[in-house]
Please model this.
Amino acid sequence: MNLLHTVFLYIHILSAVISIGPLVTLIPITKKMETADEKEMVGFVKSFQLAITVVKHAGHILVVSGAILVMISGWTWKDSWIVLTLAIMFLSIVFLARAFKPTLNTFGTNAFKKEEFISKLRKATWKYIFLLLIMLWLMVSKPMFW
Model:
């Protein structure tokens, strides 16, 4: 049982890193978008989309490995840090779907306004990083509020 726990803990930690890491790289990309021409913007937007896809799939592994860890550990689904992590996770899923895709879909259309596009992506990236860092804190410190 100890080896099983260690393996899933490692998978869980690695998927957490992979789900946060690409987001951090998006901050300098939004800065470079400000001075990019149309050709460069295509590459930046594709990079952004790829990063969001990686974050999304790493999040799937994170959720599954976390659920397995709860089931094989002494923690319960009613522990406050787990309940709060799940609540924030569901909020972040809704946020991720609404924050990036609609904005990214405006690229190359008449609705595209470069400054607004970059601003929305930058704000959404910082908000999502903040949500993920709150969940990371809950998983690491495991505070018991009730």
Q: What stands out?
A: The mean pLDDT is 91. The first helix runs from residue 2 to 33. The chain has one domain: 2-30+37-141.
